[in-house]
Amino acid sequence: MVANLFYAGDLYGSFLLHTLSVYHLPSGAIQLPVAGHVSLESMERQIVEFEATVVLATVTTMSQLSESILSSGKSHPYVRLLLFSGEAFYEDQAGLLKAAFPNATIRSVVYGSMDCGIIGLPPKQEHYTNDPRLHQVNDPSIIVEIITEDGEVTATPGEAGSLVVTNLERQLMPIVRYPSGDRAAWVDPALGLFRVLDRDRTAIRLGPVSVDFVDLRRIVSTILRDRPVGRLQAIVTREDRKDLLTLNVAFTPATDEESSQLQAELREELGVVRPMFREHVDKDLINPLRIKFVTMQELAVNPRSGKIVENWQRNRSMSEITAKGSRQAGPGKEDKATGVLAPWGEPAWFHALESPYYNDSHRRFQTYVRDFVDTHLLPYAQEWEAGGEAPLSARLRFAKSGLAFLDVPKEYRPKELMTVAGIPFDKLDVFHELILMDEMARIPSGKRRWLPGLFTWETSFCLAITEPTAGSDVSAIRATAEKTPDGRHYVVNGRKKWVTGAPWATHMTTAVRMGEPGRSGLSLLVVPLNSPGVTIRKIHNSGHNAGGSSWVVLENVKVLADHLLGKENGAFPIIMRNFNKERFILTVDCNRQARICLSEALQHAHDRETFGKPLASNQIIRHKLTTLARKVEAHWAWLEQIAYHVHIHGWQTKDVASRIALAKIQGGRIVEQAVRESQQIHGGMGYEKGVTMTEQISRDLRLKVIGGGSEEILSDLAWREEHKRASDRGAKL
């Protein structure tokens, strides 16, 4: 009985390849198609119940299953054979597999790919050894070559290089020196015997320092010796404006003392093997090596195949070509702005057109914000979205960055935050805010909504306006607040919906009714959320999972009378004053999200080949992209015009509300079209979670269009406001 744990579904071809390989085993076998998407507990249960004696899986799945089995104090001695394929096998993984399956022999079942076909099989009986990495070419139509680092073909046994394949039978799609993605070495070229060593392109860059993944594995093997290690994963991020290498090791130390000792020994050994790494750490040019002992389940895997991603550059977002370069921004001025180099990947002032709105301080500010987002937010965005919240440490870091609450008056700001990116607080203008809005919108799901609160996070606020029966129509609010006979408290009753950030807030600014129906009877109260009678329940929306969108029920909640903001029944103008800026933020968000979709689609159109030519060579694809580009660029120019008006006259001038309302409608329409066209160009990849940011944006889209006022409400608002202004100017309509 063979338990087949290979992934089906998206990779059905891979599942089929390994299913067929079982039919060619020397002895007959019954196949149990478990597939790799089921839980580890289910895998183990089926292996036990059906008495499988052979397990067929990727090395990653086998290692995860072995770890799960050992964690429950069990082993399965009746399994006689472990057959792997699909990724490199390392000698130090054998200990983990042997502990869970003590009587099993470890062998490869096939070495190949869906593009190349079968490249090699386990050696024939007369050449068989106990090395599971050994394979033999047994098809005369397959030519295997090993290319050294200097580009030469080698036939020298033991000399490592990149393995490439030529398939003489493929004609419809020729396979000529196709890279397998692995490093290998010949054992006996005449017999077609070769050994698969590890993944190709294993160099990890940290500033000017290169660290080879092979060296990291050798260091771990040296220090951990005979201990059973699952897999390794190298993750490169940015911290404190320096590159940081985190090495995740799938191993559980017996004690905290052992963990600390092993970490110190691993760091020391890396300094011996790569002295340049230690020198650059000493010079404070890169961060020291960070080591984490984790479980196999905690290692990042490819969401489609389940294979470990060994070298993960988490400080680069999907489909982005980024650079920190410069161009001349005028006589003698260097442009320090950081951005995407591909066409239309950034607003025009970044790389192309001169602008009267921006100066060197804006470029410095943009670089600072981009670096913060790329280092501290973007690498973890999907993780936080899946978990439903950002950790407190991330919220605190944002609060202390100086980027939070740029509109908090100077007298209330901590002394250490009187400058941001080296710019005095009183020199920051609306275009610095526009840059911040645009940069924060690069994070999927509008993660700036994770980061409300004040500078120390001891006090944090959320805003509760919307109710089940009152959305865009604020004047229909039903929540009530009645003053107690002694005048010291208000008693609040009502229900609020879609309150962003409520699970982590300490206080809620709440719209309540104290007077007559309509807008003139509304007031604002600050409700402490630890008060008796407050119930918070998270709402599970299609997108924005980490925004903390919640129901808040208020039942006879007593609030001190001095928590009233402004005067009784005077809240409506205060609420309306906030809407202009909120809607402007949302429309900037729409523009950036549309630009992300455009950038991803453009990059994919250049990378993807269909029928022998790039997608971008098709006129209809180019037309889709340039149509999006002209709409995104025109919308951004409109936003800059509005921002300049606000810069001169402020957020509450009579002329600005209708313009912002129309710009928000236009932004929503553009991002809707951008999502559609990007997903069309990506095909199935555009619908798959974790592959593109476009897919995440598609789930968050409705909130951008509805939030801050629906399209229908805003259209009517713009009509009324513009007709009112026209009448004031003397127009006869």
Automatic annotation (TrEMBL):
GO terms for biological process: fatty acid beta-oxidation using acyl-CoA dehydrogenase. Its cofactor is FAD. The keyword Oxidoreductase applies. Residues 462-557 form the Acyl-CoA oxidase/dehydrogenase middle domain. Residues 572-716 form the Acyl-CoA dehydrogenase/oxidase C-terminal domain. Signal peptide: none annotated. Pfam families: Acyl-CoA_dh_1, Acyl-CoA_dh_M, Acyl-CoA_dh_N. InterPro entries: Acyl-CoA_dehydrogenase (IPR050741), Acyl-CoA_DH_CS (IPR006089), Acyl-CoA_Oxase/DH_mid-dom (IPR006091), Acyl-CoA_Oxase/DH_mid-dom_sf (IPR046373), AcylCo_DH-like_C (IPR036250), AcylCo_DH/oxidase_C (IPR009075), AcylCoA_DH/ox_N (IPR013786), AcylCoA_DH/ox_N_sf (IPR037069). Keywords: FAD, Flavoprotein, Oxidoreductase. Coiled coil: none annotated. The keyword Acetylation does not apply. Belongs to the acyl-CoA dehydrogenase family. This is Acyl-CoA dehydrogenase domain-containing protein. It comes from Colletotrichum simmondsii.
